[in-house]
Task: inverse folding
């Protein structure tokens, strides 16, 4: 009988989008930006628990994504620092002016939007990355997608198998 080794992955969240862009460029990864209300938005809480905390997603993210969470808690005990709140407000102004929660975006290292998900994603969220980031289901700019793929050797190889 062969021994079984279990490994649990933990997602490292980056709070600063500029640091995320630098890391994404240096590591040839994409940025996954998630807007959430961690203490009031039911679908946001569910997204974090069921998808982002899953070993399947965390393993994928470790090799392909720099994770950024722009949280907008309402309870006083969960309030962010003024600096973090200002950073999140700037992200919302640029990427989520409609104020949707949860709202998740896939960005390239330059901060250009490659794909977005409004609300709780459909089944097999990780599979959407493996199958061309849902290209058939959502309009994606081919030049932007190709430019983005060039920035991420890991994700580009996954995309090429689904295109």
Result:
């Amino acid at each position: 009988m062969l021994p079984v080794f279990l490994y649990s992955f933990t997602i490292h969240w980056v709070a600063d989008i500029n640091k995320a862009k630098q890391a994404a460029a240096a590591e040839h990864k994409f940025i996954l930006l998630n807007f959430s209300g961690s203490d009031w938005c039911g679908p946001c809480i569910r997204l974090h628990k069921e998808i982002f905390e899953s070993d399947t997603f965390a393993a994928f993210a470790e090799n392909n994504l720099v994770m950024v969470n722009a949280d907008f808690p309402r309870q006083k005990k969960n309030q962010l620092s003024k600096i973090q709140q200002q950073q999140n407000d700037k992200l919302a102004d640029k990427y989520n002016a409609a104020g949707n929660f949860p709202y998740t975006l896939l960005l390239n290292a330059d901060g250009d939007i490659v794909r977005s998900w409004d609300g709780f994603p459909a089944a097999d969220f990780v599979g959407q990355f493996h199958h061309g980031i849902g290209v058939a289901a959502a309009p994606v700019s081919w030049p932007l997608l190709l430019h983005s793929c060039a920035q991420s050797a890991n994700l580009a190889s996954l995309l090429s198998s689904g295109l």
About this structure: The CA atoms of residues 30 and 108 lie 5 Å apart. Residues 132-154, 156-163 have pLDDT under 50 and may be disordered.
